[in-house]
Records
---
Amino acid sequence: MRSRVPFFVRRPRAPRRYNANTPLGKPPLPELRKDPITGSWVIIATDRSRRPSDFSRESVVIKGGRFCPFCPGNELKTPPEVLAYRNGSAPNQPGWNVRVIPNKFPALRVEGTLTREGEGMYDKMNGVGAHEVVIESPDHSLTFGELPEKQIESILWAFRDRSLDLKRDTRLKYILFFKNHGEAAGASLEHSHSQLIALPVVPRQVQEEIDGSRRYFDFKERCVYCDMERQDSGAARRVVIETDHFIAVCPYAPRFPFETWILPRRHVSHFETAEPALLENLAWVMRTLIRKLDRTLENPPYNWILHTAPVHEPYMPHYHWHIEVIPKLTKVAGFEWGSGFYLNPTPPEEAAKFLRDAGLI
Amino acid sequence: MRSRVPFFVRRPRAPRRYNANTPLGKPPLPELRKDPITGSWVIIATDRSRRPSDFSRESVVIKGGRFCPFCPGNELKTPPEVLAYRNGSAPNQPGWNVRVIPNKFPALRVEGTLTREGEGMYDKMNGVGAHEVVIESPDHSLTFGELPEKQIESILWAFRDRSLDLKRDTRLKYILFFKNHGEAAGASLEHSHSQLIALPVVPRQVQEEIDGSRRYFDFKERCVYCDMERQDSGAARRVVIETDHFIAVCPYAPRFPFETWILPRRHVSHFETAEPALLENLAWVMRTLIRKLDRTLENPPYNWILHTAPVHEPYMPHYHWHIEVIPKLTKVAGFEWGSGFYLNPTPPEEAAKFLRDAGLI
């Protein structure tokens, strides 16, 4: 399909792997860059990428061989499913394509009334919410990047369906979809899966994006993400993939090496309003991006997080849903947690070039 | 010294180690708790601590045997020192107690004028700042927790001296002191050291603490940290160590298991104004806390970060310097980065009890 092929990816090339010895050209001086949404500053410190201990990542390899509660035939070993796309088979039996179940070790529970209370000067509420697992394929042996395009489309439909269902619960303000791929990125089971957490509060990072993008909107009368899309798509320096519907870019001030965002090109604040053509194209873009990361970085562990507007908020002209993909390459995440200040050894322009050069796989 | 002994630690007990099988009593239902400073919500989800993969940490062990640029005799293998406490020996020679050097792979450089500029819609500045390493002891074989109390006091003096020196550079707004202990927490060399990064901007987490504590102050006309100190010191449920000058507490809404903060009991916004008696007592508290963590969690990797007011700001009635200590116990740090939303499997009341029970070591 012509429209899906990014204009600047001319032909697949031999894979070019990224490691500490890959020359990056003359390293520019360290630079501080500001995230235009949250206002955080990031150090882009290319000198540090020379250290041999950097990027000593663990490739994710499916080992198999152990009992897996997510495999077909073991449906009764998990909590009963809340959604499954099936070929006419009975619930909690084999014959599904994508299966969504409550997390066996839930961080939050659906039961009970949401109560807020004080504890002296402190504030708490009971842990009302939902914590579900999206089993992304019946096939244990495939990683997310190896799934067929149609399969990824089904996963995206499952996200949409679960969003629309959970949205009916007015106690829940936010639905967070995310994937931990590989043990180093927090996955405790290797069978490909993602998770959703439905929360009675809006996560802080999302709230800051909403507040920051509102400030930008108040000042410019434009959406900051739309501006990013316009500025970056022209220059192509940070663009990885571009289609009619989406752009995948390494953001100007990334916190992590090879951090990449997927943005819909047309302004939409809520993911769950995405129409079928958009989800179809998104499946292609996600698959292509993950395969590029797998090739360039040798199957790295990674996380991705779907950032979308709070479910009960009306359409927001300033907020723009998107997906943030973060390969886990550096062990250095120590003081960053505590300071909110990030040191990134790889300029996004270099990362984007490596990912573009990986070709369409 | 009587005044240093927390009133509720009656006598040293046999070490009680914390692992996934340690019974925590009946797990309470998951609870959402709000950090009173930043307003972030955290899930305290005790159910999840049952998972066997949790807390499969790597104990930090000093291996030695390799060439170490921080060891005495190798002074010329590092950039020339900017500070050293010596017994009359010449600079960059053996005979020091604590030695501060520029980082060989600096994230920021001291040279040049600070220039801010735009890049289309984006903002950047050149990476002016300082990045230094504090070599905490000439002895390669000792971890921070094994250092004598006087040695830790010298390290704190080095922090203070470097702060006062760097403060003279008006380009620098913030001085961040932190320690990465163990490879899993981001340390690339095992010889005990901490780092400072002097920045032309205030790190986001600190700025949010300053803003949040100002909101609290505007509303209550009291410092939120002083309120924490008052509320928690009475109840003792989250207190780990209490002396005349400091309190070490597991905060009400910790992001990580066994996260512990050390707060001066008297309100002070800037660390570098601490008087000698305070630093002396702080050395004892830090050493005791780290030794308790080492015993309870089997020498875990950890980070600590000194949070203090921006150097050029005048005294702040709402902000209170403190140290945040975060053992690195869980691999799950995936979606947390992206959402700013934390799942913590260990209630701080339980963590504090384990640390209190470790005794005074």
---
Amino acid sequence: MAWVYLSRVVAGPCAALSALIETVGVIEAARAVRECALPEVLQGPTEARRGIDRAEADLAWIESAGGRVLTPDDAEWPAWRLLGLGQLDPAHDEAGAVPLVLWVRGRRSLLESTERAVAVVGARCSTGYGNHATGEIAGELAARGWTVVSGAAFGIDGMAHRAALAVGGVTIAVLACGPDRPYPVQHDRLLAEIAETGLVVTEYPPGTSPHKHHFLARNRLIAALADGVVVVEAGIRSGARNTVKWSRRLGRPAMAVPGPITSAASVGCHRMIREGEAFIVTRADDILDEAGPLRLSLPGAVPSNPEDNLSGDEALIYAALPTIGCRLPRALAADTGLPMPGVRATLSALEIAGLVACDANGWSRTASPPATSTEAITAAHDQHR
Amino acid sequence: MAWVYLSRVVAGPCAALSALIETVGVIEAARAVRECALPEVLQGPTEARRGIDRAEADLAWIESAGGRVLTPDDAEWPAWRLLGLGQLDPAHDEAGAVPLVLWVRGRRSLLESTERAVAVVGARCSTGYGNHATGEIAGELAARGWTVVSGAAFGIDGMAHRAALAVGGVTIAVLACGPDRPYPVQHDRLLAEIAETGLVVTEYPPGTSPHKHHFLARNRLIAALADGVVVVEAGIRSGARNTVKWSRRLGRPAMAVPGPITSAASVGCHRMIREGEAFIVTRADDILDEAGPLRLSLPGAVPSNPEDNLSGDEALIYAALPTIGCRLPRALAADTGLPMPGVRATLSALEIAGLVACDANGWSRTASPPATSTEAITAAHDQHR
């Protein structure tokens, strides 16, 4: 009851109040707020609403909506996810504080649902291309067991939630308003579905309208609850850039999906990539390379293109062999200008390397070694450089 | 006549022959080749065709086509452009040598035309999007007085030439065959137009057919004649990647244009950007930021210790490299805590600055930073942020 009362008083994160609670306990802190027996730093933030106590009604409502209020004392509190927020300089940006409480709708454990999670966010005015790309990427992440975190907005956010729902995956909507407010109102039905199989999360008590500064604070929570943030489309002044900033401040990878250079909806993504604010990603594998646990390269991986690894006479001879079919050493000598003994010696070396073979008709390339996986390509690439 | 004779004998670059000419002069070198009075390293490359001398007919043909043969002795020879090729380790890759001669069609000076030049290359199987993007970018570069260098192939190359021609700009086609061979044959008319107002350039004597290894050598020449290479579309195994590799070896910026992640024709571009092989660019301004004149930040002295000039990720990565010996990118990532793409991008920037190099064993510090390191670091640094 004390937590719920305080959540309505400050309506959002408040580092000073969290610190007071940690020192004197939540009940004593609530009493101090009620009686205005407070250090000066807390008088401003609590002044407007310290007289309002609807804790009982609020609790009754969230329970009737199948939800709960999580506090740092709960086992389900995603403490390690939020740890980074507590370490940001609070003087620098108040919105950076650890949430006071979280209003949660949905049956899943927030702690477990955010164990492996990626945020997928982007432009409200998305294009058909952006929607398609979001569907592919968020759908693949969700199908592979990753929770998709987003902001339930029009455009990319909504598509990200829908794609996760469509494959039976887990998705979390983080709101910038009270848990009873569907925002945008057209996503009423979508939010209800998310609450059914995933989670709807907010720092704000019931009845809170979305305000501009709520969105900035909400963005930090999206970044904090995920292993990384992916921006699919973003105009030149998109709010997604703010989420990316939070992700970087928290030391987590920020990623952006490229698009046509002719599309205004991709300008922000290209700019973030170009300015080193976000890594370029084009598919779920790329995203998990950044946000997932480190994958080790396989020893013995084969290069995808054998020619890249050749030089000198070997490169000449290999290039002079047709992709399909055979040639005789004499023809190779005429083409490359190498003497016959050199041609033969080089063919032998290439044969030992498994790149060429010969039969009654002459010498041919062997079938290209297949690139078995992303790791193989990456490893081969590393070897090359 | 001696140059022209030798051009047909070796049909392409030949570092050993260039070295011999430098030592004994071209006439004496031609005599030595004719009489096979040669060091062993030159016997192979000259064996097949030293008996063929069509120098007179070749010269008559190129003159009748409004062209000329340029040699390193000509004032029009773009010596400083090709300087980097001569400094590549010739043992590592024969194709890296300085051209023996250049067969040129067109009235302009090659030296002047390549003073400010950008190569725009890409997929033969380009898409409507790629063609449009090429038209915008190459057209803008040409309109701003930059020469557009490309390979006259179908797709992106052809579009790049056409866009430059369309705005009355200068464009250079570099061929992988003789100057008399329109390749592809459907670009006969296009090549004639390029020769009319721009230049058609090749290392190969008249009659030479395009072979696969010619294309690899041709790609180095495209990279060498430009201040930087821009890839507009590239499939996963595009030849454009080879041109990018040359550009990087020559210490010039490699750039790639993003596209829809749903397009196979952009997969190679996205991969090069992701792996730090190319910078993302979306318009002419971005390209001139990378390839344009270097921005100097420090007047005067070059610091004795390159580390003094580094900051951020570059300082981290440089410090993580041993004074003697190599490391792999993955080990650097583990050490510095930077993600792999960041490691790769940073290594690229340091490579461009001449502070690190890589071989088959991994990345190492260069023995002695180049004299221009201050500017290079600043430029590489700017490119990055």
---
Amino acid sequence: MSLVVVGSIAFDAVKTPFGERERMLGGSAVHFALAASFFSEVRVVGPVGADFGDPEYAVLHERGINTDDIEQVPGGKTFFWRGHYDYDLNTAHTDETQLNVFGEFQPKLSAESRAADTLFLANIQPDLQREVRELCDEAGLVALDSMNLWIETARDSLLRTIAAVDIVFMNDAEVRMLTGEGNLVRAARAIMATGPRAVVAKQGEYGAALFTEDSFFALPAYPLEAVNDPTGAGDSFAGGFLGYLHSQGDSGDADEGVLRRAMTYGSVLASFNVEEFGTERVRRLGRGEIDGRFAELKDMTSLEAVPAR
Amino acid sequence: MSLVVVGSIAFDAVKTPFGERERMLGGSAVHFALAASFFSEVRVVGPVGADFGDPEYAVLHERGINTDDIEQVPGGKTFFWRGHYDYDLNTAHTDETQLNVFGEFQPKLSAESRAADTLFLANIQPDLQREVRELCDEAGLVALDSMNLWIETARDSLLRTIAAVDIVFMNDAEVRMLTGEGNLVRAARAIMATGPRAVVAKQGEYGAALFTEDSFFALPAYPLEAVNDPTGAGDSFAGGFLGYLHSQGDSGDADEGVLRRAMTYGSVLASFNVEEFGTERVRRLGRGEIDGRFAELKDMTSLEAVPAR
């Protein structure tokens, strides 16, 4: 019974109007795993270089994350991303990308990882995503994230991969771009018509919307007075979402209530992630804080009860 | 006991990717009044020209709207706006504006309108808004809308007017622009610190957020497969919101539950407005349809009940 994530493990250099960091642990698999670890046992699959050391492993181990399938490439360097955000924190500007060991990454999954019952294919090349998906043929629940780069350069491969998963996480602009359909409702339907049973359209500061065949649910982002670094928000969202879904024993049959609570846990984890730089906030997060913010979001969106605050 | 709106009455020419109309009834006061008329008795204050005739009055009278304070300027021409939308329906592009009789507009309010207990100052020059607000000194609930033009050209006047109202409706980008505060939570607080007890940040296709001193509420837009013409969505939102609030006897003391239901009725009326061009859809709308969509939105945002659909 494990939740496996395949994706990037990185060092990030980030500058926002509220501060900067020259080198911090990041990457989609890291943000996902930390968020999911509050709900489920998580295994991380991805490559790192010789510069990835005990302090980085410790961040993952402190949250009980299994790192047996992190492949350390001798003499290699870990994937590096440098980016900045202006006052519009919805848009990341990439200043530098060094693929390093990630450029030659061929996923090698142990028997334990191949036995995953829930699998998250973080935003990597769609051929690789599909390869991993085929290795994990027992998984009852498979989800993926992607981005505009793959829509532009590997669209057919991405469409084939999407057809083989259960849940698609993408930014709403990317959902439109992939389908060529300007209306988000119709765009989500077009994706579901190819296979997936749900589409989660991430909407940055506006929150996220969940489309399934016969329902729609949307949730605003938790209102924060200070957003310091949005890097990893989408992966933290997916981590909270799938971590919770996995904990509920989902094998492709979660009811609407479970999916909606998963959306809310996703939103909660994303909100903590963006409060500070990189993994700083989530590393010292506690389950009580998560449940507190879940209750707040429930109040803030309720037409029934009036919050007693 | 009446709800009064002061604003533009217009002929609009609109082109969107889904069709076009050369001349149709529009204007902020018209869209507001039609939406509010499902909940409350509404009086419209605004100028029209000699070209405004029985067919236009009939649209308002069919919804029971009082037009006694519509000032028909002999020999004048009604305000005219021509605009278009590209596939991003969130952004209106203005191609032509003929102020006509609106350029010389000096609000003249009858005794009945001056006795308004709820007043909506639609998006007009802020000096005029303040003048009307002072004439209606018995109103227990006063709200306004504004736009980037007035923030750029009449900021001090707008700030003085805002300080004299209870609820501010603005696009979220304008809330930020007005306050110079990139964080929406802090921007809304900055506006409330000058007087208003609530800020409604309109977020286009993403919905709307309500800020009060001690609470936050947000609601997604109703998911539509076809949006044909977004013109008037914001005024329809304000009309549904204030029409409902007025019907509940609000005099500045509405509880949180009433405000949240007002947000939902606002969202419902806006959603019908954008389904077709101009006033086409709202003119043949029925209260049953409104309540049906209200119930759907409640289901779509609920973390409690699972919709049985």
